[in-house]
Amino acid sequence: MKIGYARVSSENQNLARQIEALKKSGVEKIFPEKVSGKSVQNRPELKKMLEFIREKDIVTVLDLDRLGRNAQDITDTINLIQQKEATLDVLSLPSFTDIQDVNLRGLLTNLVFEIYKYTAEEERNKIHARQNQGIQLAKERGEYKGRRRQYSPHGSKRYLYKRVVQMLRDGTNIAQIARSTGVQRRQIYRIKEYALKVGDLGTPKREVNS
């Protein structure tokens, strides 16, 4: 069976391009993921896929980096796939399926994977180094303001921020807000602290017990 795995790092990103490519390659079942987890345990759809696959299945991804955030993550995931005696097909990399010799095909495939992981890791390290240099330069110039707050009047999650603030104004308790919005309690306390600081909250009503 040909099984696909697609992943983006956040809810705001779109899986459509990956899913379309997987379907065109003949994938029969797709596990779509919208999360930036550091391990298999933090990526529920990847975990489901690894539990689902069987011997001789083909796991297909558009790019190798969909399997992990760094070279070690990718290696660990590939090992888990191989432990199930399934094979990995990466659409953006050369395919050696026409080679009849199984050992040679496996050798060439693993070689390509290792080269890709090395170059991807090097590129990631260079990007981080440039980012750190830019931040340091901005700090020296007094221009660095840090990461923009997501839960704020103008942040990427401003609608959730406004909803949480309104519920706090109404006296709704933290547990009920968490259940209604899906926002973690710890984050709600941070929103509350920030809203009080910037004057969005004022003095909240007394919380109503649930």
Automatic annotation (TrEMBL):
Domain of life: Bacteria
Family to which this protein belongs: Belongs to the site-specific recombinase resolvase family.
Residues forming the catalytic site: 9 (o-(5'-phospho-dna)-serine intermediate)
Family matches, as InterPro entries: Recombinase_CS, Resolv_N, Resolvase-like_N_sf, Resolvase_HTH_dom, SSR_resolvase
Name the record gives this protein: Recombinase family protein
Gene3D superfamilies per the UniProt record, alphabetical: Homeodomain-like (1.10.10.60), Resolvase, N-terminal catalytic domain (3.40.50.1390)
Residue ranges constituting the Resolvase/invertase-type recombinase catalytic domain according to the UniProt record: 1-142
PANTHER family (UniProt xref): DNA-INVERTASE FROM LAMBDOID PROPHAGE, RESOLVASE HOMOLOG YNEB
SMART domains registered for this protein in UniProt: Resolvase (SM00857)
One Gene Ontology molecular-function label: DNA strand exchange activity
Record keywords, A-Z: DNA integration, DNA recombination, DNA-binding
A GO BP entry: DNA integration
